Amino acid sequence: MRGFRNLISLTYGQKLSLVAAIPLVVAVAAIAFFVVQESRATAEREIEALERRLIEAKKEELKNYVTQARNGFAYIYGRASTEDKVAQNLVTQILSAMIYGKDGFFFVYDYDGNNLVSPRQTEFINRNWEGLTDSDGIPVVDEFISLARQGAGWHSFMWQKPSTGEEAQMIAYVVGLQDWRWAVGTGVFIDDIVATVANARAEVEARVQRTFSYIGAIVLAAVLVVFASGMLLNVRERRLADAKLKELTQRVFDAQEEERGRVARELHDGISQILVGVRYTLDNARRRLSRGDDDGAREPLDKGIDTLGSAITEVRRISRDLRPGVLDDLGLGPALKALTDDFCERTGIETEFSTVVFRNRLDQDSKIALYRIAQEALTNIERHSGATRVTIDLRGHKKGATMRITDNGRGLRTTPDPANPGIGLRNMQERIEQLDGSLRILSSRAPRSGTVIEVSLPLSHMLPPQEDATPNRKAGT
């Protein structure tokens, strides 16, 4: 469980490196497995072919030995009768003398299993070995006799080497002398072939192990490179994220200070001046009342009351700019309608707002975002566009909701600086990205071509009517 928790607590970069490394390791391991299996199969086929060639060479050598030996006594066997003991003794003497190498010799058994010739292992001579088997239970003499009766043949079995007494694999070639009922043959030990094959297999296995080592080293290097790249990317992305976070934090502070400055200016230039006027009016009325001039105090009092009403209206305007109550009470549609009416009255720019009642309403975050985007767009139009007409259209549809803000002003630059976009446009972009929406700006510098700002929100931000059905909300979105 602790290891699993440690895995869960990995950083994003480490998890990304791990996700990239695991398929790489699995793929390389699978490739290595199939390559090794194929290499082993190919090598085994080659070793088996080599073993067959070496054994065939040994067999051909044995056949030549037996042929030469038979040619050596053919003149005796060919003229002798079936019971010619003198001829048989001469042939046994000739075969007994035919020894070669350290362990090579000829042997003779009659068809009853009696050994007649065994020059290197004389303890076998004149004894019956019918039913003799090797250490693996393979019949030896009985097989010699069977091959001789058939004419000739090869037989493989385990036999003691005369030179060392150790048991080794032997291949024997036997021919039959049918007139004398003899099985004549010779054999050769193939332990050298077995050793050669074993060495070849060991070399193949060593090559496989080396291949595994090379592949393991390559995989380890690749994994290290992936992890190192992931760590470098993680460090780089973290630095970029930290830089962006610092920039965003600074922008938040700047926005806060700008908003505080704006509110302070409006309070100082608007509310403060109005309240100062009210104070002087009331002071004037107090002086007249102190002199007993009741009729003269009426006019300053009326004027003070009117001025105080203007102060209340100004406070409501500032409060609405900070957080419009109609947005919470009646919804986005009425809030945007009030915003456009106030914009038109304040700036003199002809403003039109149109919308439809949504079947599914927007959630609170989406309402605030769209209202602030519209507020930012109208501020930019007032300051920079020189437009004479603005339209705002808000619609719900099967994919979500869309708000279009169109003006007939001079438009934006055709080649905006992507590294340093306007603060207003950047604020719009960030607001809509937080809601997984999209922002499109269509503009031209041609005279009166205007600008179109289109904001789209996905359907995920549309709520069913019952989730948004509060009694104090009378309209739309």
Write up this protein.
By secondary structure, the chain is α+β, with helices and mostly antiparallel strands. It is built from 10 helices and 13 strands. It has helices at residues 2-8, 12-79, 85-97, 141-150, 191-290, 294-322, 325-329, 332-347, 364-385, 423-433, and strands at 99-100, 104-110, 115-117, 152-160, 167-177, 182-189, 350-355, 361-362, 389-397, 400-407, 438-443, 451-458, 462-463. The strands form 3 sheets. Strands 1, 2, 3, 4, 5 and 6 form a 6-stranded antiparallel beta sheet that branches. It has a 5-stranded mixed beta sheet with strand order 7-9-10-12-11, with helices on one face. The protein has a two-stranded antiparallel ribbon with strand order 8-13. Strand 9 and strand 10 (400-407) form a beta hairpin. It starts with a helix and ends in a 14-residue tail after the last strand.
Short description:
The chain has 477 residues and is of the alpha+beta class. The chain has 10 helices and 13 strands.
- Distance from first to last alpha carbon: 49 Å
- Helix-strand string: HHHEEEHEEEHHHHEEHEEHEEE
Give a short account of the largest sheet: 6 strands, antiparallel
* Strand content bin: 15-25%
Shape: rod-shaped
Q: Which structural class should the secondary elements be placed in?
A: alpha+beta
Helix percentage: 55-70%
Mean of pLDDT: 81
